[in-house]
Amino acid sequence: MQRTRHGRTSETFETNGAAPRGRARQRAFAIAALPEGDDLSELKELLHTAGVATVGEMVQRRDKPHPNTYLGSGKLEELKAAVKAADANVVASDDELTPRQERNLEQELGVPVVDRTAVILDIFAGHAHSAEGKLQVELAQLEYNLARMRGLWTHLERLGGGIGTRGPGESQIETDRRLARDRISALKRRLDRVESSRAVMRQERERAQLPEIALAGYTNAGKSTLLITLSGAEVGVRDRLFHTLDPTTRSLRLGGRDYLLTDTVGFIRKLPHQLVDAFGATLEETRRANLIVHVLDASAPEEEREEMQRAVEAVLDELGATDAPRLLVLNKVDALDDEQRLALAFDHPGGLPVSALTGEGLEPLGERIESEFARTLSRVELLVPYADGGRLAELHQLDGELEREDTPQGVRVTARLPTAVAARFDRYAEPA
Questions:
Q1: Cβ atoms within 10 Å of 290's Cβ, excluding its own
Q2: Which of 117, 134, 227, 370 has its CA 20 to 30 A from that of 93?
């Protein structure tokens, strides 16, 4: 790696060697304008997930990107030569580029330029399987591309001079924009209908008053594996970013009580706003949860782990999930030695070390979940007539460890119920 310093900014440049032409169809050169300390590891992982080989990288250390060309003029000249030497056929930026920055970079470099948001949207498009997920991805892509339609038809201006040469270009771009806006409106209406159906299902769950737990965390932190281990559910798991796009809800039984456990889409640093908006219905499960289990990859280096934790907490705050209690789970401790475990406990004193792969620490996790919800339960003593057998069944579902005694007047029940549910059984309350 070669390092040079010019004034207050510093630049780093690395070439991984040109990839043979037959090895990868797309060979990306990764670039970034970053402050000190950050790197391109996440962008390269995103490119790998998208099926693109990274053949080189360049970082310019600066407080904020250049407004016109993202990188400074001097660094842009270095980039031209580096892209050619690495045999790259696409340049990928670690930040979301403005349409102007993207156009100027492509004109200077002579190769297509994509930004972080475009890469993520491409990954989402490949991983969306449900009808709702596909609608959400298409909506995010259209909203992202709408601002980038400017200039697509400028070639028509070169057909000749005089009257009639500009009109077709302007007419075509406005037509495309109108079609895109119409499609966006149609997608939003369809997603509203999907959300209405989801709301009906949610109301059924709320009527049953089953506590809801959302698994949130950085993508690839092991949330899906944890869901499988805790609930015994069959959920697809792969070691790649954004493998889970659609929320998966499964039943979890702890201490004789049923819980709903939901695995949601993973978060990353600089999660594009298009995705937060488009996946609002999906992420609603996180916002409405009674408890958010924040799954953190304990095997990641300390600085990277802290960055992941900050990124997830920032997205949760952006979603409005600030009031729900949070439980930090340190997953993948099976990959740590004794010294690393001690350091982990020091860095995260309130976190629970677990291994979703081996099952280590899951029993204390279940006990912690139970204790979190125990604070919201009220102890009730009821006398339920034998004729109201349906009510007895409901009580057993709400508290699998209730105490009951058969008496001539009915079934005397002592149970712990969610405070909001306890009021439904007031008429059975025994007089003091």
A1: 17
A2: 134
How many Cβ atoms are within 10 Å of 263's Cβ, its own excluded? 27
The answer as to CATH 3.40.50.300 being correct for domain 2-122 is no
How far apart CA 425 and CA 269 sit, in angstroms, is 47
pTM: 0.71
Half-sphere exposure of 306 (CA within 13 A, CB side): 7
Q: What does CATH list as the number for 377-428? A: 3.30.70.240
Q: Quick one: pLDDT band at residue 329, thresholds 50, 70, 90? A: very high
**What DSSP string runs through 210-279?**
--EEEEEEBTTSSHHHHHHHHH-------SSTT---S-EEEEEEETTEEEEEEE-PPB-TT--HHHHHHT
The whole-number average pLDDT for the span 350-377 is 90
User: Quick check: 214 and 289 in contact, CB under 8 A?
Assistant: yes
Mean per-residue pLDDT for 159-182? 62
Query: Domain 210-374 in CATH: superfamily?
Result: P-loop containing nucleotide triphosphate hydrolases (3.40.50.300)
In the chain, the amino acid numbered 230 is L
